[in-house]
């Protein structure tokens, strides 16, 4: 679209399953008639002869030959709509028209403003109650969200966050103070840190103040606070950027069940190591929220037992190499590692970096590595450039130290651990300034 | 009752670039968007042009990274390209 705007006629080629999305993107950018040509899905894994057949075959969306679609896109004369583009404003009023409770629930469901489970409707009174938990003005702009990198940003205020945080709760009475940060899309795993030693009345650790669970069943549905924050985050991530509509703004082929509630706090009292937020430069007395991309399927294990190195190595290799894991250890496991000489989290991370290796051919065959890291390697960006030079069977490191995170969570009823793949830390936000 | 959606930006309509009468003698950039296997697809396109439209000069180009605008590449195409075909994106 930038090339078109600069006067260069352009055709964008897509696979047919993305037709609705790419047309929606063009419309949202004011160019609804952007010339697009389509080939069948998939391109990934197809051989040269198969792709040649795509080129010489039919455009399944435009119902003509692909070549006609492509050449015509560059040469077909412009009509009035091509010349005008499309200007429009979308109205998202602050308040909805009054209606019955049943009708409003139906409205929320039909517009996909929910996750299809019942919600607490955000009445003015309820939102005002939520806003009483922060010193910030309701109309303060918190940030901007967009579903993907090529779509338009939507803006949201403190009040809009409160609306979504409130209607995601499970019962009318909620903790007075919630983290109200929702600035980025696709952050699904969220961890709350604090320090347990600080017991000043006005600055209690946020996890205890709101009753977060970091002991038995911390990852499960056993805490009002964990579930409420996780659900609220899911709702605000879809609503504040205009919706999460399959085929239009959401194309995850399988989706992610961790989108519902992946919120936990660190069990710092029982951890032998320094808290996660302190590792990342915050003071022990700070309360913070750490946001991860999150969401790949966890690997599970127990120990550390005699063969822990083999198990850990296999588990790390099972993680997606594009995004390092969050390694969540029960305090029993963490202390077990201390007994084996790992006196800091960093030492365990360094061990993982050293032992998480794949043959180069397998590493570079990964779809996301191909798409995202290979271009960097070709551009000379290290360490990828050196990794690309490795012989096919050479074992290369999957992760950098900063790709792996260790947190301690659990109730000490079993020496259990999880590796949650896809967990680069994207940001840490201090909670206290939102009180 | 509050509307839970954020505030969308105003959309300003933009016109398309003037089209070419034909591709003969024109310089066309084939931009490999760096998706997995898109290089192979773009190469097949390049071959097709060579066989069917030999009077068209085809230049294969790649941005520095996936999903990220590459202003240098864009400037190059704007400076000496008559048209561009980008593929395969989402």
Assembly of the depicted chains: heterodimer
Helical stretch tally of chain A: 17
Strand order in the largest sheet of chain B: 2-1-3
| Portion in strands of chain B | 15-25%
> Over all CA atoms, what is the radius of gyration of chain B?
17 Å
| Mean pLDDT across residues of chain B | 93
Shape of chain A: flat
How far apart, in Å, are the first and last alpha carbons of chain A? 42 Å
Mean pLDDT of chain A: 87
Structure keywords:
heterodimer, A: 435 residues, alpha+beta, four-stranded mixed β-sheet, flat, B: 90 residues, alpha/beta, three-stranded parallel β-sheet, 3 strands, elongated
How would you characterize the overall build of this protein?
The complex is a heterodimer of chains A (435) and B (90). With 435 residues, chain A is α+β, with helices and mostly antiparallel strands. Chain A is 33% helix and 15% strand. In chain A, the strands form six sheets. Chain A has a four-stranded mixed β-sheet, covered by helices on one side. The longest helix of chain A has 16 residues. About 7% of the residues of chain A have low confidence. With 90 residues, chain B is of the alpha/beta class.
In short:
Chain A is 33% helix and 15% strand.
Write the topology of this structure.
The complex is a heterodimer of chains A (435) and B (90).
Chain A (H helix, E strand, L loop, with lengths): L1 H4 L4 E6 L3 H10 L7 E4 L8 H8 L2 E2 L4 E2 H10 L4 H5 L16 H10 L13 H8 L9 E5 L8 E4 H10 L21 E5 L12 H4 L14 H16 L22 E4 L10 H4 L8 E5 L5 E5 L5 H11 L7 E4 L1 H9 L5 H11 L1 E3 H6 L1 H12 L5 H5 L6 E3 L7 E4 L7 E5 L4 E6 L5
Parallel strand pairs in A: 1-2, 7-8, 11-14
Antiparallel strand pairs in A: 3-4, 5-6, 7-9, 9-16, 10-15, 11-15, 12-13
Helix pairs in contact in A: 7-8, 8-10
Chain B lengths: L26 E6 L5 H15 L4 E5 L9 H10 L2 E7 L1
Parallel strand pairs in B: 1-2, 1-3
């Amino acid at each position: 679209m930038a090339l078109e705007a600069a006067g260069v006629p352009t055709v964008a080629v897509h696979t047919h399953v993305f037709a609705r999305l790419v047309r929606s993107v063009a419309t949202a950018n004011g160019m609804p008639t952007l010339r697009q040509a389509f080939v069948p899905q998939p391109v990934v894994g197809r051989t040269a002869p198969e792709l040649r057949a795509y080129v010489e075959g039919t455009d399944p969306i435009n119902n003509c030959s692909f070549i006609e679609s492509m050449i015509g896109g560059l040469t077909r004369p412009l009509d009035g709509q091509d010349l005008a583009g499309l200007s429009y404003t979308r109205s998202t009023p602050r308040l909805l028209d009054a209606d019955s409770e049943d009708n409003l629930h139906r409205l929320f469901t039909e517009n996909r403003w929910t996750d299809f489970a019942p919600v607490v409707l955000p009445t003015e009174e309820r939102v005002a109650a939520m806003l009483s938990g922060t010193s910030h003005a309701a109309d303060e702009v918190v940030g901007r969200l967009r579903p993907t990198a090529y779509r338009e940003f939507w803006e949201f205020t403190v009040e809009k966050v409160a609306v979504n945080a409130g209607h995601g709760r499970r019962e009318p009475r909620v903790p007075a103070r919630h983290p109200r940060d929702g600035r980025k899309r696709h952050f699904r795993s969220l961890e709350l840190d604090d320090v347990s030693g600080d017991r000043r009345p006005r600055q209690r650790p946020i996890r205890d103040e709101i009753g977060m669970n970091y002991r038995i069943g911390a990852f499960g549905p056993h805490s009002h606070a964990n579930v409420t924050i996780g659900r609220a985050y899911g709702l605000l991530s879809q609503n504040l950027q205009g919706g999460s509509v399959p085929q239009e703004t959401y194309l995850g082929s399988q989706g992610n069940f961790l989108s519902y509630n992946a919120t936990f706090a660190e069990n710092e009292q029982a951890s032998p190591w320094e808290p996660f937020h302190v590792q990342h430069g915050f003071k022990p007395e700070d309360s913070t929220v750490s946001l991860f991309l999150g969401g790949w399927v966890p690997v599970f294990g127990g120990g550390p037992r005699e063969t822990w190195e083999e198990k850990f190595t296999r588990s790390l290799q099972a993680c997606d190499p594009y995004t390092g894991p969050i390694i969540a250890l029960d305090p029993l496991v963490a202390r077990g590692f201390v007994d084996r000489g790992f006196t800091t989290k960093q030492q365990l991370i360094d061990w993982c970096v050293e032992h998480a290796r794949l043959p180069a051919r397998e590493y570079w065959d990964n779809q996301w590595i191909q798409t995202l890291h290979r271009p960097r390697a070709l551009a000379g960006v290290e360490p990828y450039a050196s990794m690309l030079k490795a012989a096919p069977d050479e074992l290369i490191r999957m992760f950098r130290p900063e790709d792996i995170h260790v947190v301690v969570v659990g109730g000490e009823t079993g020496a259990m651990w999880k590796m949650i793949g896809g967990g680069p830390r994207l940001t840490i936000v201090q909670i206290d300034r939102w009180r | 009752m509050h509307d839970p959606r954020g505030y969308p930006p105003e959309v300003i309509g933009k016109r398309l670039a003037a089209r070419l009468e034909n591709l003969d003698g024109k310089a066309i950039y084939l931009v490999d968007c760096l998706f997995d296997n898109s290089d192979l697809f773009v190469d097949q396109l390049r071959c097709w042009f060579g066989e069917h439209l030999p009077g068209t000069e085809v230049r294969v180009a790649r941005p520095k990274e996936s999903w990220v605008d590459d202003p240098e590449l864009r400037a190059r195409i704007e400076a000496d390209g008559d048209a561009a075909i980008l593929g395969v994106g989402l």
